[in-house]
C-alpha cells in the first residue's frame, strides 16, 4: 500500500493495527545518497573497527534524506499455517510546515539518484506527496511554542512578535506608526458601534501587527477576538471580531484543537516509527545498519557522537533487531548461501534445502510478485526481507527433534541473531553488536602502511611480493592496511621498512595506540558488559535522554542499562571482562568468536554449525525450550535471556550478550 | 521546446542556429535551493557591499544544482516588424558518465523543492532524463585521460591500471595469481592455433586484468586486440581477438571516434553555454546574479574567491548582460513600475505607457501563452524576460525625435543597462557592476549595533525611539545595521552607547575598518577603474585562466582588462579616482549617482530621467547615434562606448563605466 501525505491520516489506523497484530516487522529505507565524502569503498574499509565505521557513516551519510520507507508486517495464522502480510510503502519529504518550521537541507548523490531513477523511482511522488516528519526535539519545541503562545495569549491572538524584553503595558509607539495605529483604533471603535461582526485590516508588517495586538489588548481588554490571517498572496493581515466571553472561549477551544491537529500532522511519519518502537516487536532488515542510523537520525534525534551512545539509543528505539544479511552470513547458512545480496538471497532461499514460506497478502493490500522483481521499492524490499527471515528461521527448525516446519519470530532459536548488524566488508568483525561490546580481533598480522599518494594497489603488491599472499584495505590516498598471511613475517616487514624513505610500516597495535592518543578517551564497558551510568556529553546527552523519555512512557522496557537490568546482560559463567581472555585462549586450537564469523567474508574456518551444535548438546535441549516459549512474548527479556544462555552459547559460539 | 538527455544530440544543430540567428538571448535557471546556511533574508542584507553579497552567495548558494535552464532566442524580422522566438527548456542532471567520472553531490532545500513541486515541476524528468555536463577542468581532465590512454596504449587495450611506478616489462606476478595467468596464456595460445576469432575470459579483478594486459603485451606483442568489456551484471571481463595490423588500426580508429563522441556527450549541456558565450550576444535575465553565478560555477569553473576575479570571468563568459529587474528599477521605468517581480512586470509592460511587443513563436516551437502563466518553468521565464526587455527597450524609443517604435538589442539606448546585475534589497547600491568598480556609498547615517541574541527588531526600535525614523538590516543573531534618518544624530547615538553594557554602537566607517583589518587586502581598482594586471591567487587563478583560454580562442573579445582596453572604461571628464569626490560634491544639492538609484528601493529622489535627459542635450543627439548604430554589431565595444559616453552620462547620471 502506497502511503503519501494525502492518504497518511486516513491510513494511520490501518498501519497501527497492522503493527499491533504482527508477529514481526520488516523494514527498508531508500536514501538520496550514501557518502558525501570519500567513495563508498573508502567508507567501508575492511579494517574498520565498529567505532570507526559508525563514526564515518555518521559523518558522511546522515545528510542524505531517507525519502522512502518500507514497512511490511507479518502475522502468522496458526490455523492456516501461513503468514499474512501487509506491506506499506511510505513517501517521505520534510515539507516545511509553517514559516517558522525548520527548512531542511539534504544532499543528493548523483550516482544514487541516477540508480534509483533507472529503477523507475518516482521522485515526483516524494517531493509533491511526501509525508512530513519531525524529530523529538523539533516536536517538543513546537509543542512548547504552541503552549507558550496559548498561555501568553489570554485570548489576544498571536503575540509571537512580543519579545521577552518588551512590556505588556501601553507600548511606546514610534512616531511614524502613530497615525496608523490611531486609524486602527478608530476602525475598532466603529466596529463596536455598528452592526458588523468583523473588520479586516490591511496587510501590514510584523512590527505593525505587534503594535496593533498590544494597543488593542490594552485599550479593549474584553469583547474582541483578534487573529492574524493570511490572504491569497501570502500577506498577513489582522481580523478583528466582536465576541462575548462564551464565544471567545469557544473560538479559543477550536483553535486549540486545530493546533493539536496541525501538530500531529507535522509530526507526521515519525508517528509510524514511534508505533514500531512502542510495539517492541522484532524488526527485521537486510544489511540494516544504515537504515537504523537514518531512521533514528531523521525521526528521533541527531546521532550521538559515540558508538556506545548510539547503541543505547538504538536499543531504546528498536529493542529487537535482526539483520538477514548477517544471519545469511552466519552458520548454518553461510556454507549454503553463496550470495547474500537481497535479491540473490531471496532466490536461493526458495531452493533446497530451504523452502519458500507460505505467505499471503492480507485483503486490501497490493500483493507483490517475487517473480517480477520490484527491487529497490522500499515496501517490496521490506517484504522479501521478511520472506528471507522466515525461510531461514524455518530452516533452523529442521535441526530440532522432531523437526519443526514453522519457527516463530519469538523462538529462542533466532535469539543468537538479535541486535547484530552486518558490517560491510569487515572480515574479522562481521557485525556490530548493538546490545553489548563488539568483537575485538587482535589483527596481529595486519600492518599499517603510509606512502606517497601516487602509489596504487599494485605498488603495495610489489612491495610485499616477498611476503606471500597479502590483502590490501585502503584507508585513504596515502595509507592502507596490509594483512599478511603469515604472522611470523610481520616483524620482518616492519624491520625492513626502517631503511625506507618513501613509505612507513607500523603494526596494527602501534597504529591503534597512536590513534587512541589522538582521540578522546572512550567510555569503557564495565565488568558486566555495560558501563557505569553513562557520562554523556553535549548533544549526545540531549539526544539520548529525549529518546529515553519516550521509552519510559512505554513501560520501562529495556530503557537504558541501569543497575537493575544489568543482570540480564551478564552471562552465567563469566562476564565481559573475561571476554578478551577467553578469546585469546580459544585462538589456540578451539573455536573462537572471530573464527566463527570470519567466514562471512570468505575466508575458510574449520567450524560449522552442524558440528558445533551437537557438541554443546544444545539441539536436544532446544525443542522443549522452543515449545515452552513458542506463544509467549516476554514483557521483559530478562528471564528468557538467562534461560537461553546455555543454548545459544553452544550453538553459535559468539559472545553471550543475550 | 523541451530538451532532455535523449533529444539533446538531435536538437544541438537547432539550438546552435537559433543562437546564431538571434538578436538577443534570454535565460533563466531553476535551482534545487537558495541558501544552505542563513535564511535568504540574512543572505541578502540591506547593507551588504557587493563583495559581501558575492561572498555570501558563493559560500551558501553554489552547492545547489541548477537543474533546469531556460533559453529563449529572439530574432527581429525587419520586414514584418516583429520578433520570432525559439524557447528551449533544458533539463539538467550530472549523471555520472563513467566509473571514474565525478559523482556530484548537490544540496536540496526543502522549501525550494516544495515550491517547485507546487508549481508542477517535473523532478522525474530532471533525474531520469537530465542532460549531463562537465566544467572546463573536468572536460580537459577527461580529454587528457583519453589521450594518455591512447598514447600508452599502442594497441594494447586499456592499461588504466598501470601505475606510474610500474614497469612495462614482464611483471612480477604474485604467487597466487600465477596459475590464473598461466591459464590465460594457454587460452590465448589455443586461440592463435584454432579457427575462432575471439575468446572472452571470465570476469576478474582490476589487478588481474592489469596482469593479463601486461603479460599478453609482453608475450604477444603483435596480432592481438585486447579489450575490457562489461557484461549485463556490470562485471568487467577481457575479450581477446586475433587481428592483423590493418584490422588493429581500424579498431583503434573506431575506438577513438567512439571516445570522442562519448567525450562530447559527457560535456553535454556545457556546450550550449559555450555556444551562448561564443556568440557574444546580449544575454538578458531577470534578477540574474544567481543565474550567472550558477551557470559559471556549474559549466565553467568553480567561482573565484574574490569579486573582481568573478567579474573578470563573467565578462569573459557573458560579455553583454542585461538585467530586466535592474532596468525596471531604474529611470525612466522606476516611476512607472510599482512591482518588479517578473510576473507583475510582464503584466505592467502590456499596459500604457508601455506596449506588448509583437512576438511570434518560430515554426516547430511550442508557443507560450502569457495569459495562462507557466511561471517557474525556466523556458517560460526566459521567454517573458525577453518580452519585458523588448517592451522597455521600445519605450526608450518613444523619447527620440522622431519617436521610434522598435529599439534594437544593439541600440546605444540600452547600453547604460549593460552588465549591471540587480542587487536584491540593497537600497544604496542597486546593482553589481560587472564591467567596472561598484558604487561606494558613504553610509554616514548607518550605525552597526551589536546586542544580546534575545533582542528582536522591536528592541532596536525601542532603543532608537528618540532618533526618529530608522531602518533595520539584520546581519546575524547579535548584530544589525540601523540607518538613521538624520545625519546629525549619528554621533549622539554613538556617544549614548558608551555607557551601555548590553549593546554597542559603531559607525559604519568604524565597522568597515575593523572588517578590513580582519580580511585579506583587497585588490584595488586603478585610476581608470581597472587594476594593474591582476595578481591572482590559487584556485581563482586556475579558474580565470581556464576560461580565458577559451575566450582567446573566440577572437580576443574583451577578454581581460589590459592596457589598451582601459580607455573604454574611462569617462570623458574624469576617471574613477575622482568618483568619490564628485559624489561628495554632488551630495550638496545636485544629483548624485547614489540618489539616482536609491529610488530603486523606494526612497524618494528629486531627479528623474525626463528632466535630466534634456539637460544634457542628449535626447536630440541620440536619434542620429541610434540610426547610425542600428544595424551594426560592434566587434569591439571600445569605439562605440567612447561615442556614447556623453549621451549616457546625461541620460542616467550613473557612474560612466561604459
Automatic annotation (TrEMBL), chains A, B:
Keyword Transport: no
Region of interest called Disordered, as start-end residue ranges on this chain: 147-167, 554-581, 594-658
EC numbers, comma separated: 3.1.13.4
Ranges where the R3H domain occurs: 178-244
Top-level EC class: hydrolase
Record field: compositional bias (Low complexity): 594-603
Cofactor(s) for this UniProt protein: a divalent metal cation
GO molecular function: metal ion binding; poly(A)-specific ribonuclease activity; RNA binding
Residues making up the signal peptide according to the UniProt record: none
Catalytic activity: Exonucleolytic cleavage of poly(A) to 5'-AMP
GO cellular component labels: cytoplasm; nucleus
Entry keywords, A to Z: Cytoplasm, Exonuclease, Hydrolase, Metal-binding, Nuclease, Nucleus, RNA-binding
GO BP terms, alphabetized: nuclear-transcribed mRNA poly(A) tail shortening; priRNA 3'-end processing; siRNA 3'-end processing
Location within or outside the cell: Cytoplasm; Nucleus
Polar residues bias spans: 153-166, 559-581, 630-650
Pfam families: CAF1 (PF04857), RNA_bind (PF08675)
Family: Belongs to the CAF1 family.
This protein's name: Poly(A)-specific ribonuclease PARN
Species in which this protein is naturally found: Tachysurus vachellii
Amino acid at each position: 500500500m502506497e502511503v503519501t501525505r494525502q492518504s497518511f491520516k486516513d491510513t494511520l489506523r490501518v498501519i497501527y493495527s497492522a503493527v499491533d497484530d504482527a508477529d514481526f516487522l520488516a523494514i527498508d529505507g531508500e536514501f538520496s545518497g550514501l557518502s558525501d565524502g570519500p567513495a563508498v569503498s573508502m567508507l567501508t574499509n575492511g579494517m574498520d573497527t565498529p567505532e570507526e565505521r559508525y563514526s564515518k557513516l555518521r559523518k558522511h551519510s546522515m545528510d542524505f534524506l531517507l525519502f522512502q520507507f518500507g514497512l511490511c508486517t507479518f502475522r502468522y495464522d496458526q490455523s492456516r499455517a501461513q503468514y499474512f502480510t501487509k506491506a506499506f510503502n511510505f513517501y517521505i519529504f520534510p515539507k516545511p510546515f509553517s514559516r517558522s518550521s525548520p527548512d531542511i537541507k539534504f544532499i543528493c548523490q548523483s550516482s544514487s539518484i541516477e540508480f534509483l531513477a533507472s529503477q523507475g523511482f518516482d521522485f515526483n511522488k516524494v517531493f509533491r506527496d511526501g509525508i512530513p516528519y519531525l524529530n523529538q526535539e523539533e516536536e517538543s519545541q513546537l509543542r512548547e511554542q504552541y503552549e507558550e503562545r496559548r498561555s501568553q495569549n489570554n485570548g489576544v491572538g498571536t503575540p509571537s512578535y512580543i519579545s521577552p524584553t518588551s512590556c505588556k503595558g501601553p507600548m511606546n509607539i514610534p512616531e511614524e506608526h502613530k497615525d496608523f495605529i490611531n486609524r486602527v483604533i478608530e476602525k475598532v471603535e466603529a466596529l463596536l458601534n455598528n452592526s458588523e461582526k468583523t473588520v479586516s485590516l490591511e496587510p501590514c508588517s510584523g512590527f505593525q501587527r505587534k503594535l496593533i495586538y498590544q494597543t488593542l489588548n490594552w485599550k479593549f481588554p474584553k469583547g474582541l477576538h483578534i487573529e492574524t490571517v493570511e490572504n491569497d498572496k501570502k500577506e498577513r493581515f489582522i481580523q478583528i471580531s466582536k465576541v462575548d466571553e462564551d464565544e471567545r472561549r469557544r473560538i479559543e477551544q477550536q483553535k486549540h484543537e486545530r493546533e493539536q491537529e496541525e501538530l500531529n500532522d507535522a509530526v507526521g511519519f515519525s508517528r509510524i516509527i514511534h508505533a514500531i518502537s512502542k510495539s517492541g516487536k522484532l524488526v527485521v532488515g537486510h544489511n540494516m545498519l544504515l537504515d537504523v542510523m537514518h531512521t533514528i537520525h531523521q525521526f528521533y534525534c541527531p546521532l550521538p557522537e559515540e558508538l556506545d551512545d548510539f547503541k543505547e539509543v538504538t536499543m531504546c528505539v528498536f529493542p529487537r533487531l535482526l539483520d538477514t544479511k548477517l544471519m545469511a552470513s552466519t552458520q548454518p547458512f553461510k556454507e549454503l548461501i553463496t550470495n547474500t545480496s537481497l535479491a540473490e538471497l531471496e532466490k536461493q532461499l526458495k531452493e533446497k534445502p530451504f523452502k519458500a514460506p507460505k505467505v499471503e497478502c492480507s485483503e486490501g493490500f497490493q500483493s507483490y510478485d517475487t517473480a517480477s522483481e520490484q527491487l529497490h521499492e522500499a515496501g517490496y524490499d521490506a517484504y522479501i526481507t521478511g520472506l528471507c527471515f522466515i525461510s531461514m528461521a524455518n530452516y533452523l527448525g529442521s535441526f530440532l527433534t522432531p523437526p519443526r516446519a514453522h519457527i516463530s519470530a519469538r523462538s529462542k532459536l533466532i535469539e543468537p541473531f538479535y541486535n547484530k548488524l552486518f558490517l560491510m566488508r569487515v572480515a574479522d568483525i562481521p557485525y556490530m553488536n548493538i546490545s553489548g561490546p563488539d568483537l575485538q580481533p587482535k589483527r596481529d598480522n595486519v600492518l599499517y602502511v603510509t606512502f606517497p599518494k601516487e602509489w596504487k594497489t599494485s605498488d603495495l603488491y610489489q612491495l610485499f611480493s616477498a611476503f606471500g599472499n597479502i590483502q590490501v584495505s585502503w584507508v585513504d590516498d596515502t595509507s592502507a592496511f596490509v594483512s599478511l598471511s603469515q604472522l611470523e613475517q610481520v616483524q620482518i616487514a616492519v624491520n625492513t621498512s626502517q631503511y625506507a624513505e618513501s613509505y612507513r610500516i607500523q603494526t596494527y597495535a602501534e597504529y591503534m595506540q597512536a590513534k587512541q592518543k589522538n582521540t578522546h578517551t572512550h567510555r569503557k564497558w564495565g565488568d558486566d558488559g555495560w558501563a557505569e551510568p553513562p557520562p554523556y556529553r553535549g548533544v549526545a546527552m540531549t539526544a539520548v535522554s529525549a529518546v529515553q523519555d519516550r521509552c519510559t512512557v512505554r513501560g520501562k522496557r529495556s530503557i537504558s542499562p541501569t543497575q537493575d537490568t544489568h543482570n540480564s546482560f551478564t552471562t552465567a559463567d563469566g562476564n565481559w571482562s573475561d571476554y578478551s581472555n577467553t578469546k585469546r585462549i580459544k585462538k589456540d586450537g578451539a573455536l573462537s568468536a572471530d573464527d566463527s564469523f570470519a567466514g562471512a567474508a570468505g575466508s575458510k574456518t574449520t567450524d560449522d554449525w552442524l558440528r558445533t551444535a551437537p557438541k554443546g548438546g544444545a539441539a536436544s535441549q532446544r525443542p522443549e525450550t522452543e515449545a515452552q516459549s513458542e506463544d509467549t512474548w516476554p514483557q521483559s527479556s530478562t528471564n528468557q535471556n538467562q534461560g537461553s544462555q546455555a543454548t545459544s552459547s553452544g550453538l553459535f559460539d559468539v559472545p553471550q550478550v543475550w
